[in-house]
Specification:
The chain has helices at 35-38, 51-59, 64-80, 84-95, 106-109, 115-125; strands at 6-10, 21-24, 42-43, 98-102. By secondary structure, it is an alpha/beta fold. This is MarR family transcriptional regulator.
Length: 126
């Protein structure tokens, strides 16, 4: 199984040299963030929770294990379909450090309950 150097940050945080490639892992562009100032190398919106799943989790924030299971299933379908964004993200990970970015506030509140952790675990186990 591959082991990648994956970090997490909020999209609003300033970039730094340790970020490596900055990959936005949100389906929606962060509100109020100018694309010119974002310093985002790749927007991997296809490899994020689907809109119905994102809305479901918003309504059921205490059911992370169910969210995780559903999101892993979505990622497995993308892999089976040879999704181009998933392929591109894997290629970038092989090149070196990648910082996955999100606008979610939960990154600051409770890191273990974000889609970024599920995505990282999927990438490292497949």
């Amino acid at each position: 199984m591959p082991s990648y150097n994956i970090r997490f940050k909020r999209a609003y945080d300033a970039p730094d040299s340790a970020d490596g490639q900055r990959v936005l892992a949100d389906r929606l562009w962060p509100r109020g963030l100018a694309k010119v100032k974002a310093h985002i190398d790749f927007w991997a919106k296809d490899v994020t929770p689907s809109t119905p799943l994102r809305k479901w989790f918003h309504d059921h924030p205490n059911e992370f294990s169910e969210f995780r299971s559903r999101f892993l299933e979505e990622l497995s379908v993308l892999e089976a379909e040879h999704n181009t964004m998933l392929t591109e993200l894997r290629a970038r990970l092989k090149e070196g450090s990648v910082t996955l970015l999100t606008a979610a506030h939960r990154l600051e509140d409770d890191e273990a309950h974000t889609h970024l952790h599920v995505l990282r675990d999927f990438l490292e186990s497949h």
